[in-house]
Amino acid sequence: MKVLVAEQCGFCHGVRNAISVAEETLAHHKRGNHVYSLGPIIHNKDEVERLAKVGLKTVAKVEEIRSGTALIRSHGAAPEQIAKLEGKGLSIVDATCILVKKVQHIAKELEKDGYKVVIIGDEDHPEVQAVMGCATDVVVIGDENDLHKLPQNARLGIICQTTQSPEHFGRVLGAIGRSGFSDLKVINTLCKEAIKRQESAVQLCRQVDIMFVLGGLKSANTCQLAELCKKYNSQTFHLQNWKELDKNILSGKNIAGVTAGASTPDWIIAEFVKNLEAFDAGGG
Ligand code: SF4
After folding, report:
1. Whose CA is nearest to atom 7 of ligand 1?
2. What pLDDT was estimated at residue 16?
3. Boundary (domain end) residue, out of 69, 97, 125
């Protein structure tokens, strides 16, 4: 099968950095001194399993870490969590993406300047939760249905989860504007790397018979990519890896497109593309 790969796909610099920081920390830690990631280091099951095999332990809460090294993933952590880790005397390795750090700083500054901090994003996402910990009573707006959460007559300082699509950010901003809030300060905190992946995916999915979006099912940016591609190509499938592919869906298709979220490792993409190309020649 002919396979075209999106020009921009796979690891962004924030995730690549977090993985290399994790690998370096694991390579240099002393025997018996465990390395813990506070939450999965990235939203990719295969990569988390690979790193677990070389010693990275994933925990859900600070309370689960008693000693050793705590690694802060690219999504960051709330200041309260960092303080708790410090209080336990743990060694902390911070792999928070620099853009995410910037968003956290913006939230603090907005609050200092008297704005009610509003973040457009998914309140269950760790990046959003970390930002929520940087100011008091941050309001999270998932979509237009959440506008009732906004306090009347407040001065709103609006930011966005880095991996949301510009279309979604714009739509929610429009709805807030229409709701009569007059004192708004909007800071565009969308990540350019995520936007480039979205543009590149949309361009590619229009040219192919079938489109594959590779990445974790909990990865926000991968889900965004899949949703976008579905709008332009109904034959879009979000898969985590080659093993998940039902070969029957390839029947009658000549050209396949492949893209991947910012947390999808190169080896998953390479394996998928290689097998898909071979499917044509060898029948899978
Ligand atoms: S998608 Fe953007 S903000 Fe998120 S980790 Fe990657 S570079 Fe950082």
Report:
1. 14
2. 95
3. 97
